[in-house]
Design goal:
Blueprint: H1 4-18, H2 23-76, E1 95-98, E2 105-106, E3 111-112, E4 119-125, E5 132-134, E6 142-143, E7 148-153, H3 159-164, E8 171-175, E9 182-186, E10 192-194, E11 197-201, E12 207-209, E13 216-218, E14 236-237, E15 242-254, E16 262-267, E17 273-277
Antiparallel strand pairs: 1-4, 2-3, 4-15, 5-7, 6-14, 7-11, 8-9, 8-15, 10-11, 12-13, 15-16, 16-17
Length: 287
């Protein structure tokens, strides 16, 4: 039989065996956990913005690649226009480029202005609009300084088909038979059949604004009639010359938000559509 003293000793030994952490050990454990956990959370917090930056850079790279691919496709078609059975001279232009001028980058507030960016229009002939000849009276040629131009269809094209191909706001290019002279006009009315010819109405003194660059040109959207090209510009066209409807795709940069310029694309001077953002430079050609 155990004595009372033996039972108390056994109880103390059992109590010592069952005891958990001491208060000091618990506090030390919590402190170590807080240090390690804090370090882990700090590392995680630092990597969260890095992940966001990486995602943004990836998105920018993809957008730039898509923009470059689209621009390349459009550029390849510059100056194109082929009609079976029609001996049309090579289009005397394929693109028009207007360089940005003035201040480009302001380092103080990290903003970009229009001076950093060029505007380029890619000119093609609309393959869905049949070509035609200017309609003349006798041996006289016609002048684009007049507000009315009459055109005659060729081949199997009917008057109604030709008239239906032209709408108000379309840009028309006249090219002489050897491709050495050209002129532009923007239609003020849709084409209509009049006296066995198609009447094309325009205002030779009107000024039109390009939807991307916001620059204005005489009877023209795309700077084809720029006075610096006056060696190619003509006013008299005869019945062997050509009347062509042009298509154009214009690229430029919208600086409405100077800290985030946006590359835009406009088809036939329509509303510009965003192609890529965070553009800091857009130059075509040398210089």
């Amino acid at each position: 039989m155990k004595t009372r003293e033996q039972r108390m000793t056994s109880s103390r030994e059992s109590f010592s065996t069952w005891a958990g952490f001491s208060m000091i050990e618990l506090l030390v454990s919590i402190a170590i956990f807080m240090v390690i956990g804090g370090a882990a959370m700090s590392l995680f917090r630092r990597h969260v913005p890095l992940f966001t930056v990486q995602q943004n850079q990836t998105a920018v790279n993809i957008a730039l690649r898509n923009a470059a691919a689209q621009l390349q496709i459009d550029m390849v078609n510059a100056g194109s226009g082929y009609y079976q059975g029609a001996n049309i001279p090579t289009l005397p232009l394929g693109i028009t480029v207007f360089p940005g001028t003035g201040t480009c980058y302001t380092g103080l507030n990290q903003t970009y202005s229009a001076g950093c960016f060029d505007t380029v229009s890619v000119i093609t002939v609309d393959p869905n609009t049949p070509p035609s000849h200017p309609a003349v009276s006798g041996s006289n040629c016609v002048s684009v300084t007049s507000s009315t131009l009459f055109a005659t269809p060729i081949g199997s094209t009917t008057l109604n088909q030709l008239a239906g191909s032209y709408n108000a706001g379309d840009e028309v290019l006249l090219v002489n038979s050897n491709g050495s002279q050209m002129a532009t006009m923007v239609l003020s009315k849709s084409g209509q059949v009049t006296g066995g010819k198609v009447q094309l109405q325009h205002n030779p003194t009107a000024v039109y604004k390009n939807a991307v660059s916001q620059s204005s040109y005489s009877d023209d959207y795309y700077g084809i009639s720029n006075p610096s090209n006056n060696n190619k510009l003509g006013t008299q066209f005869c019945n062997t010359d050509w009347v062509l409807r042009v298509n154009s795709t214009t690229y430029g940069v919208d600086t409405t938000s100077p800290a985030n310029p946006v590359l835009v694309r406009s088809v036939n001077n329509g509303k510009p559509q965003a192609v890529a953002d965070q553009i800091i430079g857009f130059r075509i050609g040398c210089g």
